[in-house]
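Page 37, continued from 36.
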């Protein structure tokens, strides 16, 4: 206060004093309110301060750290260690939120058999420890998901103490490095010549999790959005979904009939080159498969060069043009 009176005039001092009084009053009434209404907040604070009670079997983080100082690294400063967030381990039982009560372990001088280690315990039990907090919103479909069913658990992909990724505490630096361990086929496609800018090297515009939720979802193939593949694509490419006056029936069914979601050797991630792509279905059209004749090739028919069929059938996903739209010309 001394410094204030020296540098500020008397009016400022009075203003500061009133300000301080206000702050004190607000804080007092706020904490009183929390105590009355925020029952869970009170509980969290009490457990944090009363961690040495032997009855609970919890010894508290300080005790753990007397022997495991090195486990502060990676954990300290991570979202789990932020006590200000009442849902974090730091605001609850600290280390023991995940490792379980440690009294017996400590009494046994660090008896390994008396403490839970998520790295070595059955994956399902480790998952349960994490899910005691992570059971909402984007995580509520994990149980029964393909990953859960095939014994791919939280600690398969995540590390609490030694994460390598910038976000999301993955065991690898990038998402792709995590997924590639088991999904080489999909990740390799991403590196092919023509695909949407998926990938970490090419600008990180899209990642596997732009389309998938590795924690499970309501959609097929753990797709994040919608309840069908087409809806998942349309969450970004709304204009391709329609409804159109003239629908290309196949597009409505599924975008991956013609596109490979992960990338391909063809332009626009097409599963086959045009005209071959189109002729998988349209061999009896007005311009049948005779386009592969030498005459057509030598004449550089516009049904083959450039964008081939799409030179004319530009509105390949569907059209709203009353007349030419029927065959997707405009
Ligand atoms: C008195 C020292 C001491 C204290 C306090 C202590 N530990 Fe340990 N802890 C050890 C020793 C020793 C080991 C065994 C190291 C080994 O054998 O590799 C160990 C091992 C562990 C392991 C690995 C178990 C395994 O299966 O390999 C975990 C997890 C662990 N401690 C967690 C904790 C937690 C959480 C706390 C606080 C509740 C805690 N420890 C408190 C000494 C201690
Ligand atoms: C959010 C859950 C969580 C919290 C909180 C947590 N741990 Fe861990 N702990 C884990 C997981 C998961 C592993 C397995 C290795 C990993 O993921 O990094 C582990 C492994 C360990 C191990 C065994 C090391 C090994 O290499 O096998 C020790 C010891 C340990 N933790 C001590 C602590 C201490 C001490 C604290 C508190 C400062 C703490 N843990 C807080 C989840 C947690
Ligand atoms: C006591 C509750 C609690 C437990 C137990 C817990 N977490 Fe968390 N975790 C949180 C909270 C709170 C956050 C902060 C993010 C938020 O607000 O959702 C978080 C954040 C994370 C993040 C995101 C980190 C980031 O950088 O954004 C990951 C990944 C994570 N937890 C994994 C795990 C894993 C794996 C386990 C089990 C070994 C686990 N958690 C156990 C409460 C918990
Ligand atoms: C197949 C690998 C994989 C498994 C299994 C997995 N995760 Fe994740 N998790 C990820 C990826 C990838 C991210 C996104 C990281 C990023 O932002 O780049 C992520 C993100 C998270 C986040 C940050 C918030 C969010 O939803 O983006 C939390 C919290 C989290 N995971 C918790 C868990 C928990 C708890 C489990 C077990 C029930 C689990 N994860 C299982 C791969 C996995
Ligand atoms: C543009 C959206 C999109 C992106 C980005 C994406 N996927 Fe997919 N993924 C899909 C769609 C749609 C399917 C289902 C249709 C299919 O199998 O082609 C799918 C299917 C899968 C399947 C199941 C394949 C099968 O045969 O059942 C795996 C595994 C997969 N993706 C992994 C990944 C990985 C790993 C990444 C990141 C390198 C990734 N995906 C990026 C959209 C995407
Ligand atoms: C440790 C191995 C492993 C890792 C790592 C892994 N997965 Fe999987 N994933 C699997 C297994 C096993 C299946 C089930 C395959 C099956 O049943 O055909 C699967 C299935 C999938 C499917 C198809 C789901 C369905 O309903 O058919 C998608 C999509 C997928 N994983 C995405 C990812 C993404 C994205 C990542 C990286 C964040 C990832 N996976 C990391 C093992 C893994
Ligand atoms: C998260 C948003 C998002 C989702 C979901 C998404 N895309 Fe894309 N897609 C993009 C972006 C961004 C581009 C690049 C646009 C650009 O460069 O102008 C793109 C480009 C494309 C291209 C053009 C590629 C090229 O070479 O020009 C095709 C084809 C495409 N997406 C198909 C799909 C399909 C099929 C799906 C569903 C499996 C899908 N997209 C899901 C965001 C998305
Ligand atoms: C009948 C095959 C077919 C189906 C089904 C299909 N597409 Fe396409 N798509 C194409 C062809 C061919 C091109 C290349 C057009 C060109 O060269 O102008 C293309 C181009 C694209 C492009 C990039 C060019 C542009 O116009 O922006 C995007 C994005 C795209 N498709 C998204 C989708 C989505 C999303 C779906 C599902 C709703 C879908 N496609 C279904 C054949 C198809
Ligand atoms: C997976 C099969 C499939 C593929 C691949 C496909 N189509 Fe189609 N296409 C259809 C079906 C089914 C219809 C609807 C036919 C009907 O209503 O009689 C249709 C309708 C059309 C029509 C309107 C014809 C009419 O009589 O209404 C045109 C034009 C057309 N497709 C062009 C193309 C072009 C160009 C390509 C390649 C870029 C292509 N299609 C790829 C299945 C396909
Ligand atoms: C030079 C422009 C042009 C090119 C290139 C072209 N088309 Fe057409 N196509 C048309 C026109 C114009 C019509 C409509 C004729 C009508 O209304 O009688 C048509 C009609 C169609 C129809 C619907 C009528 C029917 O007979 O079933 C299909 C399907 C079709 N085209 C497929 C294709 C395929 C597949 C390719 C590539 C191999 C292709 N088109 C290349 C101009 C073109």
């Amino acid at each position: 206060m001394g410094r204030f009176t020296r540098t500020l005039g008397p009016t400022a001092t009075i203003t500061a004093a009133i300000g301080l009084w206000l702050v004190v009053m607000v804080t007092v009434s706020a904490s009183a309110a929390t105590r009355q209404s925020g029952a869970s907040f009170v509980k969290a604070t009490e457990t944090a301060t009363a961690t040495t009670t032997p009855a609970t079997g919890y010894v508290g983080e300080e005790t753990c750290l007397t022997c495991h100082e090195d486990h502060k690294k990676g954990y300290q400063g991570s979202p789990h260690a932020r006590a200000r967030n009442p849902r974090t381990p730091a605001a609850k039982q600290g280390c023991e939120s995940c490792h379980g009560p440690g009294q017996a372990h400590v009494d046994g001088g660090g008896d390994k058999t008396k403490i839970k280690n998520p790295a070595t315990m059955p994956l399902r039990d480790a998952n349960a420890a994490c899910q005691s907090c992570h059971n909402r919103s984007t995580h509520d479909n994990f149980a029964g998901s393909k990953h859960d069913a095939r014994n791919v658990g939280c600690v398969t992909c995540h590390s609490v103490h030694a994460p390598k990724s910038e976000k999301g505490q993955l065991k690898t630096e990038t998402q792709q490095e995590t997924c590639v361990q088991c999904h080489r086929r999909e990740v390799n496609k991403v590196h092919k010549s023509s695909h949407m800018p998926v990938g970490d090297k090419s600008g990180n515009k899209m990642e596997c999790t732009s389309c998938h939720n590795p924690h499970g979802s309501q959609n097929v193939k753990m797709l994040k959005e919608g309840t069908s593949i087409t809806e998942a694509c349309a969450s970004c490419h709304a204009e391709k979904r329609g409804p159109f006056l003239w629908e290309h029936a196949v597009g409505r069914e599924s975008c991956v009939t013609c596109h490979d979601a992960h990338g391909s050797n063809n332009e626009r991630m097409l599963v086959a080159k045009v005209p071959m792509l189109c002729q998988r279905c349209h061999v009896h059209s007005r311009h049948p498969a005779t386009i592969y004749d030498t005459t057509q090739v030598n004449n550089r028919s516009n049904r083959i060069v450039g964008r081939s069929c799409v030179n004319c059938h530009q509105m390949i996903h569907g059209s709203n043009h009353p007349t030419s739209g029927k065959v997707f010309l405009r």
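The pocket of heme C (ligand 3) is lined by residues 79-80, 85, 87-89, 92, 97-98, 118, 129-130, 132-134, 154-155, 158, 160, 167-169 (CB under 6 Å). Flag for discussion at group meeting. The longest strand covers residues 246-247.
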